Amino acid sequence: MDERSLVLVFVINILMLVVAAQQINNDYVVLKSLKDVWENLPPSWDGTNPCQENWEGVGCTNSRVTSITLASMNLTGTLSGDIPVLSELLYLDLSYNKGLTGTLLPSIGNFKKLTNLILVGCGFSGIIPDAIGSLPSLRILSLNSNAFSGQIPPSIGKLSNLYWLDLSDNQLHGSIPVSTRTAPGLDMLFNTKHFHFGKNKLSGEVPAKLFENNQLTGNIPSTIGLVQSLEILRLDRNLFSGSVPPNLNNLTRVNELYLSNNKLSGPLPDLAGMNFLFYVDMSNNTFDVSDFPLQLTTLRSLTTIVMENTNIQGEVPLELFSIPQLQTVILRNNHLNGTIDVGSSFSNQLQLVDLQNNNISAPVQRAGDKSEIILIGNPYCESGGTEKYCTLPQQSNSSSYSTKTNNCVPALCSSDQRSSPNCICAYPYQGHLYFKAPSFSNLEDPSIYTSLQLSMMSFFQSTRLPVDSVSLSNPTKNLDDYLVITLEVFPLGQDRFNRTGISSIGFVFSNQTFKPNKTVYGTYYFNADNYGVFSSDAINRTSKSSSSGIAIGAAAGGSVLVLLLLLAGIYAFRQKKRAKRATQLSNPFGSWDSNSSSTGGPQLKGARCFSYEDLKKSTNNFSEANAIGSGGYGKVYRGSLPGGLLVAIKRADQQSMQGGHEFKTEIELLSRVHHKNVVSLMGFCFEQGEQMLVYEYIANGTLKESLSGKSGIRLDWNRRLRVALGAAKGLQYLHDLANPPIIHRDIKSNNILLDERLNAKVADFGLSKPMANRSRGHVTTQVKGTMGYLDPEYYMTQKLTEKSDVYSFGVVMLELITARRPIENGKYIVREVMLAMDKTKYMYNLQAILDPAFDLTMTPKGLEKFVDLAFSCVDETGEQRPAMSEVVKEIENIMLSAGFDPKADLASSSSEYKGSSMGYEHPYSDKSLFMLSATQIYQPPKVEPK
User: Which residues participate in catalysis according to the annotation?
Assistant: First the structure.
């Protein structure tokens, strides 16, 4: 390239930078206009560069404003017409600012990159502009709990990427718009899974092209069965008439179905195949007289059945009460007869069976039954039945429940502060959670709220928000039959939140990022109180006048060319200097141990050296309150680093500490391990006589806990396959791609952790061995492992190979399908599955040994191939076992044959799969399974498969 071309390229680059600088300046001008119309903005909104000066609530990418999240800031004013000039904006959340009023201007349609528009609980009014349909990237549109009026804009139908649409609790009227030959409509929203229109004034018929507490009339159109992306369908409390379309059961993804309080007639709808349905309410309609619908007994995810006054007759089938998650059954005011058998098949979760005003003659009682069974108004009670079933239980629509303290005495606080569950005085962020479809009936059950509290705290910790504790209190049922709970969120490390903390927590709820277990609580929304006691840690800068800001902007635009020419001249020098500095920082450890012969710090990739004081402070002086596990190595503590990042700190006791050289070698090995399915080493500490390893903190515990029910996470067949695939990929990485290759030596369900998205991560490398000489094929070493998972060939020969991990993984695969421990009541899982298995029969005749949580009315597709793969992994001869790369490929093939996408990200958040948990064992604890050394006898039984 000649000199003239170089000059041309240089000039073009300079002009591009000038344009970019002007765009950055435009972002400042827009935010400056917001300052002119809004009050109570954060004090940090000062200066001339929102990105470099860290204006609170403003997020930037490459010096362009990409998010404004100012939930619960007590803002007042109107939405400036200039705000759509922020052309790179992705997120706009102004929720819970009741002082924000006025209308949405048509210029809102200029946000071409906006993905989330969230204005929950503000004071906006007027019509929703038609320009709202000009936001092609929009995925979440939440305008609920405002005062919007007029009709729903038909243009919303053009938002082809929309996932969540919430227009509830406004003053909208008219009919639901549908498309015509010349205009769009909501029937075009094929990817939208959540429609919320309740508590408006909508009227008219539901159009044939296509909702709760409106005045919709006419028939439910048959085309509703075509909207197969729906997850929630609420048509209750309207004026619908006629028959329910027979293709309603095409909506196989629906979780909640409400048809109650209408004028529906004809046969009861057939819900067969709606296998994700957990809440169904068809009460108070005029359906034809019919027997109890047996297809309900096949829906194994059901938690709540409400069929009051639906003209059903005959006996209630025993199978109904064996649905594993069933909690509430309300069948009052029908024509049911016979007896109610509440025998041994009763679900352990069942809380209420309300059969008032039927023709039940007698119940068959089960000793120790804890469920409330109400038979008032039946012949059984009229002829002098047991008082237990013939007296209305003491139930109310409220509870005095309040979160208990964490083994401490509540602090005496000033009148405007509250004592947290950790007995610290602070100003909490408060509000009310509204759950629309709770599955439980007993508001006095504390385990329900404890589970919610633990789930919420786990989420806050995993997302590194500055939350010390949360308190739930005063659960009540309102007139809409919503569960309303008072929520208090307490700050971490200080007595009040700053604005960033409040807006981040508000965004968690307004954006539905936190997802409690919907099979227990149903969908929800949050209504926050004002928070007016922000901490004063924000820097108060000297305000500048509007004219000064504009003058600075103009001057910047004119002088940027000169500045860039100067910068270009020194660019090469600075790059050289930066490269030199980067080289110096690539090994940031100036010393290792002054008393050791080891030279220099370890050669690390991605891990950092923590000081003893850093980790001591992060764990509150290694307090017992922060201890989350223990083992042969020592104790594990939860720590919170500056900025709120949670870590797990493994601290060796004096008896298990290695020499300095060995500890250095182990860290160098682990620091090379970087894979999404392997728990990451974040750093270490080696000073003051301490050896500590710092790992990433994994929120959702171990696979063992999920299979046992302790974590409350429900794993269906798809998710179990996905967990198996993730763990297999982690092992494959260790065997084939790590340098040097690593044999884990302790694969078990307690060492497979699940993150917030239910991704599996292989953990705990305390027994791992590197394959320094791969050509040798094995490592001769003392036998170590965990009983039930240990490779018998390794035990007999003391020769460790990658196939020893494959054997252990095969045992984990059998755990995944049976939810049984490897050794349980003296029985070995490999032997038990072999004895039960008959390949000539359906599902290999394994129905009796499979996890009861499986829906056995539908064959888990690929189960037989999965079992075959598991037994190839636990073959007695290592050479006959597949490599982990082959295991990964086979699981992927099983998923594809079952109709599952191995590359799909199934969960947006694990909390939506969580259930009520009665206890929780932390993922870094290994108390439940003990380590086995060569001095112990272990001989797995030899059983020939059928």
Answer: 746
650 is in an annotated binding site: yes
Could you give the CA distance from residue 70 to residue 602 in angstroms, rounded to a whole number?
A: 44
469 with 503: CB under 8 angstroms?
no
Q: Which domains does the chain have, with CATH numbers?
A: 254-393 (3.80.10.10), 418-528 (3.30.70), 609-696 (3.30.200.20), 703-933 (1.10.510.10)
Residue 18: Cβ-neighbour burial (10 angstroms; 0-12, 13-18, 19+) = middle
Question: How much is the pTM?
Answer: 0.52
The distance of Cα 372 from the centroid of its chain, to the nearest Å, equals: 32
Q: What is the DSSP letter of 678?
A: B
Q: Which pLDDT score, from 0 to 100, does residue 827 have?
A: 87
CB 615 within 8 A of CB 685: yes
Check residue 602 and give its pLDDT. Answer: 56
In the chain, the amino acid numbered 823 is I
* Integer angstrom CA distances of residue 379 from 71, 235, 339, 341, 389: 57, 35, 11, 16, 12
- Number of CB atoms found within 10 A of residue 228's CB: 12
H or E stretch at 823: strand 823-824
Contact residues for 489 (Cβ-Cβ < 8 A; gap 6+)? 428, 429, 430, 460, 467, 470, 505
- Above 90 in pLDDT, residue 267? yes
SS3 3: helix
Phi then psi for residue 604, to 5 deg, are: -105, 155
* H or E, element range at 570: helix 546-585
φ and ψ at residue 813, rounded to 5 degrees: -60, -40
Residue 138: count other Cβ atoms within 10 Å of its Cβ. 25
* CB-based contact 66:90 (threshold 8 Å): yes
Q: Reply yes or no on whether the pLDDT at 67 is more than 80.
A: yes
Average pLDDT over the chain reads 80
pLDDT per residue over 736-782, tens digit each? Answer: 988 888 998 889 998 899 887 889 999 887 778 887 665 556 676 77
| First-residue to last-residue Cα distance in the chain | 75
224/226 Cα distance (integer angstroms): 5
- Region 411-440 average pLDDT: 89
